[in-house]
């Protein structure tokens, strides 16, 4: 077949994409089912052969995650506790085979409102790196995701990496998702929380909720309510009304809107409680 | 399904009622009942090693010289007419051998629908297959592409350019209700039946419940996809099929393609799960026609999505159940009515009220079902069609009444156990549901249940227990034939075209034959899955085990007569008649004087014969008209429901089954537990999401149609009363479908006990378990 491309360099990839009508393919776990056909449509460009797209590297500026890094690779990597939420999400994306094939960059480009990778990356102040023939640009993840199934990526650009600034690598994080059953399920609501604790108080809080709005989002109002609070009192400071105000959930086949926002608040309280538990001596 | 049928069946019932018991099948209990032989042992599946090694060859795995591969194009719309069908690009694509559309498809007649008035028929759809430009449901086949490889066929199928003039379609369940049809009969039963004035009795009852319950559509998900390999040699056709109906499929193909029956051979030695889905659908016909046109063998395997779109599933239902009771809890009225979908071109009436008709004694009754015509893929039989979803409604209602009356739900059921069939007064052949209830309550620890909802808690988790009965009729098919060939070295081969969809047909009938013929297990060979063998009926309605058992018993009787004739006057058996001997220890033995005996080998040797062969058909199943014959189950369930999120986890299930003799405990546990897991899926997650605007199934695959995964399935305890049915061959009743019945109600009832929330619509999802709904 001539409609499958697997370039060996980013330059070749960009040249091929400049012609237009090219669909980038990573793990294929979203792209392939979405075709509803036995074959992928049109011209497909496999990015997994490109250098630098797989793997995680650390530098003075922070952490770089190649866009084609798989969930399994993320789950198995040794990473700071701030990325615990991302690693917990990695083992809840579909089944093992999906985790072996699916990639973090693909999860972002697919831009499902229920993408499991997004809330853990939002609490890490993640930026995405886009490469096009006009050069390289970086965007905060919250600006990259513009709507359901919509991103700021231009048709001739490639998502090559995610950058997590050193400032966001502090503290510990936690991820929770809720579906109609224990496993192998699309989220009704999911949350990621990253907290810095100092002397029994929260010095910094980052909270994000997915599957409850057009794109997953941070909750600045709830974050400020938590900042400075004693750890033991933190869960009770997360009020349903504040969470609901930050979200715009849908009524759909998986759950009602009211259920979703209530569930999100509860999941946040549980994640905060988990992170605020005194560490056993 | 006509009034004529009702009259006929009721006449048969009346006449059989007059006939003395001893003249009927089962009138004299099968002498093998209670005998401790190979039946009842834990023999492992005989084909297990073959399957584990990958040596068992399924229909879509048969290698053939010159094999070519088919891909299908399914309609994206529900009703309409093809206005443009350009196949040029597909025909020009690499490797393509044929593009089959309504234009070049051979003109074929309709396939007769299977049904009780036409037991030899096998069709699941009475719609034309690629005969015209009309589209009748979303998913209907528009074209078949044949190529040298599967990839080439799939590729070329995408190149077909199809335009459709869309027409209005009926796809809304609620909108179709005013036009609902009331059939005269449901399977062999008169549809609308009543006794007394049930509505008046309900209004006057001291206690009552009256509610509507809904169940969504369900789709088949057998692990093996539907697949065939078809090849012609001149005017002879061989079809390797995955089917529950080997001989009827051969007969249907012969008729459709104008062939002699003996020129069609259907082979189906292994089937990877049937559950009602592996019947006769469009794909067999398409593959056979295509193979003939290119004069090469053709393989066609449906995708998982195509199984959802082209092979029907269980109809959605909307059911009303109302029960009235006096102060002691005795039912004064029992009403079960409702709606399901059954277009005129489908075969399955989803008989959700039939189980209720024999479940409880009441002073008055009203039963009836209405059918809705929608433009859908023909709905079909799916494990316990009717009883699976009907038991959810009636057994939820009994639980509601028990709560309203503050009576233990087991006790309420025991107070309403009928002595004889509630509608006809016919005696039950065997019914020990009360025993099953008591046995189960004890084994499950039912007395730990709180009668008040929301009373047991473990942190945020509310704990609850529920129970529900299930039932399923005994069915034995008429006219199953079987051949026994006995050789001089004491080996017996039993041959019938029957089907084994993984449940162990060959294994259990090998056990049976060993006992029936008085031979060791390793002297028995059981052949099946080939339409050239004596014709067995369809494997459906949990009927196959007893149908084959009756044929083996009949053939063994005939064999006895033949052997005595061969034995002649020089034998120690000389002068004995068939009724005076039994088959035991490798020969014939005189019952009165066991010293008079002779082995099969000696009889054949003296007669100068290498072998003897007899073919016989089981006696007509008249016992089902003389007795009320049903299996029963008592299901118990324990759940945990998060009071915060509504997450529901089933933690324990117990099924106590009253199903006659258990022929092989190891396989029976597996069969019954598998049924219960399907019931769990029905309760928790299974739901066809149907777009009522487009008539399209939105979740045609296992990513979105959720069957239970390992983490959803708790410990499941399976046990039984073990009481034989004196009126059936071996004392057995089929166990393929009873497992699913009652499970969803037991779970919903446990959810009520845990949370105080009554959910009357399946599946039971977490968002409906918190908040205002159902309170």
Question: How would you describe the overall organization of this protein?
Answer:
Chain A has 281 residues and is of the alpha+beta class. Chain A contains eleven helices and 14 strands. Among the domains of chain A are: 1-45, no CATH class; 170-275, Enolase-like, domain 1. In chain A, 30% of the residues lie in helices and 26% in strands. Chain A is globular, with a radius of gyration of 19 Å. The model of chain A has no long low-confidence stretch (mean pLDDT 93). With 775 residues, chain B is an alpha+beta fold. Chain B has three domains: 31-56 and 477-620, Aldehyde oxidase/xanthine dehydrogenase, molybdopterin binding domain (Aldehyde Oxidoreductase, domain 4); 62-168 and 223-273 and 278-310, Aldehyde Oxidoreductase, domain 3 (Alpha-Beta Complex), CATH 3.90.1170; 179-218 and 314-475 and 625-771, Aldehyde oxidase/xanthine dehydrogenase, molybdopterin binding domain (Aldehyde Oxidoreductase, domain 4). Chain B is built from 18 helices and 31 strands. In chain B, the strands form eight sheets. A seven-stranded mixed beta sheet of chain B has the order 3-5-1-14-11-12-13. In chain B, a hairpin with a 6-residue loop joins strand 24 (587-590) and strand 25. The radius of gyration of chain B is 27 Å and the shape is globular. The mean pLDDT of chain B is 95. The chains are: A alpha+beta (281), B alpha+beta (775).
